[in-house]
Design a protein that fits this description.
Layout lengths: L15 E5 L4 H12 L3 E6 L2 H14 L5 E5 L5 H14 L5 E4 L17 H21 L6 E5 L22 H25 L5 E5 L14 H6 L5 H4 L6 H4 L1 H8 L8 E3 L11 E2 L9 H15 L14
Parallel strand pairs: 1-2, 1-4, 2-3, 4-5, 5-6, 6-7
Antiparallel strand pairs: 7-8
Helix pairs in contact: 1-2, 3-4, 4-5, 4-10, 5-10
The structure holds NADP nicotinamide-adenine-dinucleotide phosphate.
The site of NADP nicotinamide-adenine-dinucleotide phosphate has 29 residues, from α1.
Length: 315
């Protein structure tokens, strides 16, 4: 079977890509590859200095590429609204929105909006951002919303009784819940886009395990496991961000992609390797949970989408 590599990426000339957290790790690598393929890139980042440094690095590897910056803190609805306003004002057309940014919080933290920080950053922020800019994608043939999930979604449960972990916080269930939410969001968004006859599709990807800055706030053991210096020992478990990011890039650009597709490394474990179409858990396809999470996300963020709910069939 042919590997899907950077060389497989079709030309992206004339396309505008907004990528959250494009300043480091998987987001940076995806942005770099897309810029090299000819796309205009908008890095939506929370730290302007890190964003500017990343933009400069991308311009070196993709001479002549347009790389813009927008300030975005996904853990703040005010910031998400400001970023969406700026994106709407600057880009009449968006071809790709890549919801890549994410994090894990070892300790419970509440955002200024009163949300648990992991859920805010990884799900509610991206939910709000997508809803606020979706009308810039809807008329664009071939446009896509790509959301980055994780193998960990398989262990996720949406705890509607305590979505914000107010009754007790453990970082792993919080992270796994947020990554399951990414896939339920993709599932419901795709259903709504298809029902509306939109040109846009919703797809998802996961990188396996990649050596990025992701472990920066986690235990020393987790940071050591992610260190590139140990790659000779952890090659079977972890891969480079370059290869990890290809799942995102494939979801964003493979012409054979259909709405709802999910890409990640191959094999049973899906830890490492070049991206293929993979299956997500049965729970991530639970349409009743997806619908309920959507309604809850609209209520919490105050963002209503420009495409309506799917009418249940048979009624
Ligand atoms: N690495 C893995 O093994 C792995 C596995 C499964 C899934 N993932 C997923 O892959 C995605 C990218 O992670 P990564 O591995 O590339 O990690 P990373 O190197 O830590 O990069 C995360 C990016 O998200 C940004 N970010 C975090 N919180 C944000 C916020 N509140 N607002 C805006 N941006 C924010 C970070 O910005 P700063 O640079 O300013 O901190 C950074 O740009 C995440 O969704 C993660 O869940 C990663």
């Amino acid at each position: 079977m042919n590997r899907w590599t950077e060389g497989s990426v079709p030309g992206q000339q004339g396309r505008t890509v907004v990528i959250t957290g494009g300043n480091t790790g998987l987001g940076f690598e995806a942005a770099r590859v897309l810029a090299q393929a000819g796309a205009a890139i908008v890095l939506a980042c929370r730290d302007p200095a890190r964003g500017a440094a990343a933009a400069a690095r991308i311009r070196v590897t993709a001479p002549g590429a347009r790389v813009d910056l927008v300030h975005l803190d996904l853990a703040s609805l005010a910031s998400v609204r400001e970023a969406a306003d700026q994106l709407r004002a600057s880009y009449p057309v968006i071809d790709l929105l890549i919801n890549n940014a994410g994090g894990v919080n070892p300790r419970y933290q509440r955002t200024e909006d009163g949300f648990e920080r992991t859920l805010a950053t990884n799900h509610l922020g991206p939910f709000a951002l997508t809803g606020l800019v979706l009308d810039r994608l809807l008329p664009v043939p071939g446009s896509r919303v790509v959301t980055v999930s994780s193998i960990g979604h398989r262990r996720g449960v949406i705890n509607f009784d305590d979505l914000q972990a107010e009754q007790g916080y453990r970082f792993q269930p919080a992270y796994f819940q947020s990554k399951l939410a990414n896939l339920l969001f993709t599932c419901e968004l795709q259903a709504r886009l298809a029902a509306a006859g939109a040109a846009t599709i919703a797809v998802a990807a996961h990188p396996g395990n990649a050596r990025t800055e992701f472990g920066r706030d986690m235990s020393r053991a987790a940071r050591i496991a992610m260190s590139p210096r140990l790659s000779a020992l952890t090659w079977w478990l972890m891969q480079s961000p370059r290869v990890g990011a290809l799942a995102t890039v494939r979801a964003a650009t493979d012409p054979d992609t259909r709405g709802g597709d999910y890409y990640g490394p191959p094999g049973r474990a899906q830890f490492t390797g070049y991206p293929v179409r993979v299956e997500s858990s049965a729970r991530s396809h639970d349409t009743a949970v997806a619908r309920r999470l959507w309604q809850e996300s609209e209520r919490l963020t105050g963002v209503t989408y420009p495409i309506g709910a799917v009418q249940p069939s048979g009624g």
